[in-house]
Fold this sequence. Notes:
The chain is α/β, with parallel strands linked by helices. It has 5 helices and 14 strands. It has helices at 2-28, 64-73, 90-104, 120-128, 185-191, and strands at 31-39, 46-51, 77-81, 108-112, 132-133, 137-143, 146-152, 175-179, 195-198, 207-208, 212-213, 231-235, 238-242, 260-268. The strands form 3 sheets. It has a 6-stranded mixed beta sheet with strand order 1-14-2-3-4-5, covered by helices on one side. Strands 6-7-8-9-13-12 form a 6-stranded mixed beta sheet. A two-stranded antiparallel sheet has the order 10-11.
Amino acid sequence: MKKKRKKFWIILLVILVIASGIWFFSTFVPETTYTEIVDEKINNEITIVQISDLHGMSFGTGNSVLLDKIKAENPDIVVVTGDMYTNGDSNGRKIAVSLMKSLAENYVVYFVNGEHDNNDDYFEELSSAGVRVLDYKEDEITIGETTLHFYGITNVYFTGTFDLSNAFVRDDHTFTILLSHMQNFEKFASFGIDLSLCGDTHGGMVRLPYIGTLYDGEEWFPDLNGKRTRGLYSFGDSLMYVNAGLGNYPFPIRFCNRPEISVIKLFPE
């Protein structure tokens, strides 16, 4: 009987160690993902790194792990799509600002807010550090022989009358990129955006192979019902990439969905 009990506890301990390792790896070890997009408006290779939804986390001292991983990609542009700290978390805000300041010292950085980091003095702090805050603004940047036209919106919800043409003029001549924390893909596509970069979903936090998100707070298995929770999607001629985020708000539980640094490479047709 004692041998059976000892064997039981050993097996249980092994299971707990394995489960803890999987949990830690899935929740706290960021991965770099790669997406390639080919378009006739692109004349030379361009590398864009997207990060999102940090929620005040730090990967290594001073977020050195993130900075090193981004540096390794040698990006032309870094885009940040909101919720870099959680509302009310002053220390998390300092961590987020410090990370973006460090990035702006070496790269062109574009930023749009989420529902948590929607704060005017925060925008001013980022702007003074050289971050290009696109609070319903647009900007063009030329890299090599290619001009990219960036739009950024601050929406933390959308009404039925939402229409990008109320704020912007459509550009049919350059490759257009929209930054938005939350997605409204059909409306983005109808305006004529070539590529939308979004966050907010955290990739669904817990994902299952071949099924996708387990539960998104509203329904079970939302990916099977057409929701877009992580990765690249298309609608007509428009594309959208949904970044899985870096933080773990509201609970530190990820599965099959590691914190993500997404690398988007644009290539000539």
